[in-house]
TrEMBL record:
This is Hydrogenase assembly protein HypC. GO terms for biological process: protein maturation. SUPFAM superfamilies: HupF/HypC-like. Pfam families: HupF_HypC (PF01455). It comes from the Bacteria.
Amino acid sequence: MCLCIPSRVLSVDEDAMTAKVDTLGVCKEISTHLISDSIAVGDHLLVHVGFAISKINQQEAETNLATYEALLAEMEREDVAVLLS
């Protein structure tokens, strides 16, 4: 299964077609070659394996991130339960 993680744009290099983004607290550079929309600092993008694949609004990004964080917390609880059993 593949996940596209919402990421917030920190900076844009239009010439190189890249952007620096924050994904769940991790900053990284991604390619914007697949996006035809203009991208600005503060925008939210869905990112998959280093490529922005679509632009989303802030509410959608926040909802998706809350879901990912809940899934990660559940996975962590399950890991702890396995270690304690």
